[in-house]
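Re: the request from the purification team.
They wanted to know what the chain is likely to look like in 3D before they choose a buffer screen. I agreed to run a prediction and write the result into the notebook, where they can find it.
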Amino acid sequence: MAFEAFILGTGGMMPLPNRFLTSVLYRKEGELLLFDCGEGTQISLKKLNLKWKKISSIFISHTHADHITGLPGILMLSSQVERDEPLYIYGPPKIKEYIEASKTILDMYINYEIIVTELSGSGIVCSTPDYQVRAFPLKHSKPCLGYTVEDTVRPGIFYPEKATALGVPCGPLWSQLQQGKQVKNNAGKTVSPDAVMGPERSGTKFSFVTDTMHLDSIAHEVKNSDLFICEGMFTRELQESALEKKHLTSTQAAHIAEKAHVRSLGLIHYSPRYTKKELQQLLSEAQEIFPETFLTHDRQIIDVPNPE
């Protein structure tokens, strides 16, 4: 199924007047998943008229301030919008301590359930009949995680004309075939789903990676993503600085995208040293490696269609 990504903030380290800190909202079929929650997240949500009480889960990459300082406000705000469902929060060790300390020190009024899960290593962290979210380790100056959201496999296309030709009347039997069940036609002969259905179809895949040095394992985790949101904090000339600080250059992000055969790469988490004009250098260097690269910008909406 198609999905949308809302870029709520694109900055790293410190917010700028027109560049809030990193945060991305993923929306599919009314489900909202938030990835990181930097300072300014609430403002972008409001400007985009997104209903934050519909956010079911928040996924935090790591506990550096520029990725979590928007979280206390989201928690408090959710008590003012008649939230009925639990809010699930996933992140590395100490995320629970941070949330509990914030609730206590700020004397938060919370009238809904918050369920926090601390993660380590890689694996599926939550799953529904429609999708699953997987976390995997990155390498930064403190424990950090990347995430993917991938659809479950969709049934193949149903061909009514094939069912009719095989003597299966329109009605409940067609529905059963689409559910993978065998049925009897008008002549009492068995008709299998594969006789009237096309091959299974893969869904969409979204990947979010920020604050890490280059790791070969990242390409494996984000392989075949339809949208790969990845930090590109520095230009090529600052590669040594990026390595020292355990960050990626835009060129390294592009190499990962190329190796992973993603459909598109959106750069994010820019160093505050770069003006809007200077960001074009990040883009140019990445596009030399992976042409399907673009710069994300605050409050950008990205529509990702189903694969062909």
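For the purification team: The chain has a mean pLDDT of 93.
Please add any questions underneath this entry.
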